[in-house]
Amino acid sequence: MSNTIDKVRIILVGDSGVGKTCLTHLIAHGESLSRPGWTVGCNIEVKLHEYKEGTPQQKPYFIELFDVGGSLSHKNSRSVFYAPTDGIIMVHDLTNRKSHNNLRDWLFEILSKEGKDTYKPGSNPGVHKPSDEQNAFDPEEFVGAAQIPILVMGTKLDLVDEKRQPKTVQKAGGIAEQCGAEEIWLNCRDPRSIAAGTTDAVKLSRFFDRVIEKKQQTRDTGFYGSGITDRRRYNTASTIPYNMTNINQAANALKPNSPTAQTPVGNILMEPNVL
Questions:
Q1: Burial 60-70 (b: 16+ CB within 10 A, else e)
Q2: Are the C-beta atoms of 62 and 6 separated by less than 8 Å?
């Protein structure tokens, strides 16, 4: 029997301009992206990750990174990228407090039924709301129901004033603390930010391991939790040959088994058919 590589899907969400595309490229390729463009629909990168590296359980996995565009004009259609989802990376700009506040809206949009935000009339990710409305949303309620691994990442650390340390950018009780998630602050233009052996690289690897473990538990128990995973559109046992020598060929082969949509690797906008 030939060796195979399993895969997991992780979506990256956050307001437009926070640096999701640069971050996705850095994670997948270990290098900075000199001229990032605006994401229309979704941009997909693939990373080969060693699960539980250095242990007898070590096994390679493909990590599909779905960089979802943050434009409000695509709010009604981007929910097509939310199912299935094995993990969530929420991205904000360390120099823009509003982008951090809006992560609550992103989390609710992803975890609520069909990705639609219904907790406040007229509520939209990317639109700042008074603090009393922000505090009305309890992330723990949704994290507990979906049990999806979450990582919070703050970008543009290089633009934070030297006198304004990152710890002052984040206030106690931030979204990461409320979700029980780890948080990483980094400069996406510096490849050393998540270089092997660094603290942030360890955090990122640990997050990938949690995502894989959660998917294994889901597959073993047959329990798919909330509506974020649609069994009609996802085959958890799908694999690809491990003997491929060209990583780009492997990336192009990584397409979710879906009767309603196709997902090519690259900057895309999926148009699902009606079931």
A1: ebbbbbbbbbb
A2: yes
Q: What is the mean pLDDT of each run of 10 residues along the chain (275 residues)?
A: 84 94 95 79 93 95 94 80 92 94 90 52 47 53 69 94 57 77 94 94 97 89 49 39 40 43 42 36
Tokens of 9: 């899907």
* Pairing assessment for the beta strands 267-268 and 42-51 based on DSSP bridges: antiparallel
Orientation of helix 103-111 relative to helix 139-146, angle to 10°: 40
Q: Which residues pair with 4 in a beta bridge?
A: 241
Spatial separation of the C-alpha atoms in residues 144 and 140, rounded to whole Å: 6
Cα atoms found within 13 Å of the Cα of residue 151, Cβ hemisphere only: 24
* Residue 191: φ, ψ to 5°: -60, -20
Handedness of CA 243, 53, 231, 23 (dihedral sign): negative
Q: What is the pTM of this model?
A: 0.72
